[in-house]
Amino acid sequence: MRKVLLLSMLLLIVLTGFAAREITICWASWPPADALLALSEEFTEKTGIKVNGLFVPWGQFMDKVSVEFAAKSPTIDILIADSQWLGWLVEGNHIMKLNDWIKELGINLNDFYPNLLQYYGEYPFGSGNYYGLPCETDAEILIYRKDLFEDPKEKAAFLKKYGYELRPPRNLFEMRDIAEFFTRPEQNLYGIATKFSKDYDVVTWDFGWALWNFGGDYWNPNTLQVKGIVNSAQSVAALEFYKSFVNFAPPGAATYSFDEVNTAMQTGLVAMAIQWAAFAPGFVDPEVSKTFDKVAFMALPPLIEGDPNTAYVPLGGQGIVVSNYSDAKEEVKEFLKWFYTPEIQEKWALYGGLTSFKPVVEDPKFVEMYPWNQALKDSIPRLKDAWNIPIYAKLLTVTQENLNAVIAGTLEPREALMKIAEEHEKILKEAGYK
Amino acid sequence: MKTKMLSDRGIALLFILPTILILVFIVVYPLIWSLFLSFTDYSVVGTEKPHFIGIKNFANILKDEYIWLHFQNTAKYVIMAIAIQFFLGLGIALLLNREFAGRGILLTLVLSPMMLSPIVVGLFWRYILDANWGVLNYFTSLIGLPKIAWLGEKEMAMYALVIVDTWMWTPFMILISLAGLSAVPKELYEAAEVDRASTWFKFRHITLPLIAPLLLVGLLFRTMDAFRMFDLAWGLTQGGPGTATSTISIALYRMAFQNFETGKACAFAYIILILIIGMSNIYIRFLNRLQKRGG
Fold first, then answer.
1. ω before B241 within 30° of 0 (cis)?
2. Which domains are present in chain A?
3. By three-state DSSP, how is residue B61 classified?
4. HEC string of B12-24?
5. Nearest alpha-carbon partner for B267 in B245, B280, B247, B251
6. Residue B245 C-alpha, separation from nearest chain A C-alpha, in angstroms
7. Where are the beta strands (DSSP E) in A266-378?
């Protein structure tokens, strides 16, 4: 009897011990999440720590995280979080400050690009407090139809009309000329597809590209000034320029979000598309794209070629943050130690993850891995983000509605930006920022 | 040993106690708690406890021009959708209220849209109405009409929402109208036939007065439903373009689950609740008056 009892206790201890050796990663339900889970099998083999995926559709992702964190639930150990969530995650005390771990694990911060380290992890900006590390570094890139761009007849017609050669655009105005050139409704061909919709954050980030490169901004993050910035002459000019793309987009473009832009390019409806690099595999997949062998990728063009101050690219993607409520912190620590090594980051890139780990990105092999990696590499130092304060969602809602109204033709750019400025000032004031 | 037996009343109470407890836990408690929160600045994702701020949330909502814009959109949508569904539903019910071959199958097919999930209907119609790949534009292009950006233009988006809602919920009005029509005594029509009454006279003086109470109940349900409709519009337009189809339910969702203004959202929900109760009362009074007149 005693033997049976001892054996049962031993079994219980072993089972309990095994049960504790697992972590759960929460992310949106999309291909990079599956890739990370597949890569994590190597981690499990090496350490015996099982990695579970809690992948939630984009539409419910934030709801799920906020519910779990509001309940202080230990369900999530690692969260792969949007950069703009950083403020509410930190100020809600939901995630861990990682400075001590970074030191203890010997993670070299110089292996990350400073802008990305800041956007994905530092809160507040310039404080040196790191709550996250880059994981999936996404950037808006340009996808274009190389068959059309290289067609001698098209080239000759373009040269005749615009007085310069048809080529991948070197600045915003060339891009608009090309969009206009390829807009031929009678052939069911349009110049460009981009995300004009009010879904989630899409039009705000897509417009960011024009806004920042024209010298405008959504606000001054240091002084928190909005009026005079988001509605400045540069910002208005940027929105007028951005709105002009509607004329060269397919009908109904005001509703275009991720899927519509993908479909427009995959069905050959447009000559160019602005899309997040994370969606790039779908453009070269013969299973889903009619134009899989006709597309090329490049970084978004600047306003003025060669001027880094007019060459910003909207930042997407997510960083790794660690839940304060996790009861598997040691296991998480082991995961981070394993993940942030050149060997694993290279594998992450091969699995389709968008790494921004310098030793990998700057290795000549990186651009050979996938046809869009050069575009991503060119974009990384130029990436820029909008807000990451806890009330960002309120600022975003106002921005989305007004920008989308401009695209739909119900508001003029100046009027819309003035509304955004007034509403943002009010929101910041109510939240005690002013 | 003496056993104390439970009285009949005690046994009855014992049986309904679990239900009462569940109802208190899932209905009464949240109602009271949300009423309390509506007077606070609470945010579910924040670290702060709720602070009492009086009627500030209610005042801020009522003087917010954005909120009024959402009320206007909702009113536009409710009036258009309910009016069309009422007349269309009654008309189709009058056509179906006779015996003919295949009536049962036709009725089942006609009623099927309202058995679908609204979010699925919204997403399906988003594809059907797509300007480039949508089947609706494909068919209209066959007769030489230009592509219409149903969901991308301010004016069209509201009509699109009304069309989809009508497709989904007219069957409900058909069902209610049919129930009313089948209950009208045949003898009344026979008597009218003897008096050589016209079809319009029979409809105006026999059919309509007798089915009016039931139609009003149908209208009451549809109005309440349309007033708080969220999923269909969310799946179809997410309130866009701009704020063209943004209803009060969408505004409430954004307030509660995107901006996480929990206290303010509770206040807004109570304002909507009061409005719906007010409207329902108008309907119910009218219904009672009709019944008194009839009875």
1. yes
2. 2-138+316-384 (3.40.190.10), 140-314+391-430 (3.40.190.10)
3. helix
4. HHHHHHHHHHHHH
5. B251
6. 11
7. 270-276, 295-299, 313-314, 318-322
- Is residue B187 helix, strand or coil? helix
Contact predicate A314/A238, CB 8 Å: no
Contacts of B31 (CB under 8 A, 6+ apart): none
Three-state SS at A276: strand
Where residue B2 falls among pLDDT bands split at 50, 70, 90?
Answer: low
Q: Which of A92, A263, A405 sits opposite B241 (nearest CB)?
A: A405
Query: What does each C-alpha distance from B277 to B188, B220, B274, B282 come to in angstroms?
Result: 37, 11, 5, 9
Contact B188, B205 (CB under 8 A): no
Nearest to A132 by CA among A180, A194, A80: A80
Nearest residue to A49 (alpha-carbon basis) of A27, A75, A19: A19
Average pLDDT over residues A381-392: 93
Is the backbone peptide bond immediately before A124 cis, with ω within 30 degrees of 0?
Answer: yes
Rounded distance between C-alpha atoms, residue A219 and residue A386, angstroms: 8
Q: Is B55-294 a CATH 1.10.3720.10 domain?
A: yes
Which of B37, B69, B260 to substitute to test the interface with A, most A CBs within 10 Å? Answer: B260
**Which residue's structure tokens are 């219409």?**
B148
Residue B162, pLDDT > 60, answer yes
Return left, alpha or beta for A93; rule: phi > 0 is left, psi -120 to 50 is alpha, else beta: left
- Cα–Cα distance, B213 to B220 (Å, whole number): 10
When pLDDT is cut at 50, 70 and 90, the band that residue B292 belongs to is: confident
> For B186-216, how does the pLDDT look when each residue is reduced to its tens digit (9 = 90+)?
999 999 999 999 999 999 999 999 999 999 9
Kindly determine whether residue B259 and residue A254, on different chains, have CB atoms separated by under 8 Å: no
B258 to chain A: which residues are within 8 Å by CB? 62, 393, 396-397
pLDDT band at residue A19 using 50, 70 and 90 as cut-offs: low
* DSSP secondary structure code for residue B50 in this structure: P
Q: What integer best gives the mean pLDDT of chain A?
A: 93
Which residues of B lie inside 8 Å of A (Cβ-Cβ)? 44-47, 126, 130-133, 147-154, 237-244, 246, 254, 257-261
Residue A190's φ and ψ, nearest 5 degrees, are -130, 165
Provide the token pair at B85. 């569904």
Nearest to B248 by CA among B64, B118, B81: B64
User: What SS3 class is residue A62?
Assistant: helix
pLDDT digits (tens, 9 = 90+) for B64-101: 888 899 999 999 999 999 999 999 999 999 999 988 99
Give residue A102's identity as a one-letter amino acid code: I
Residue type, A322: V
Q: Where are the domains of chain B?
A: 55-294
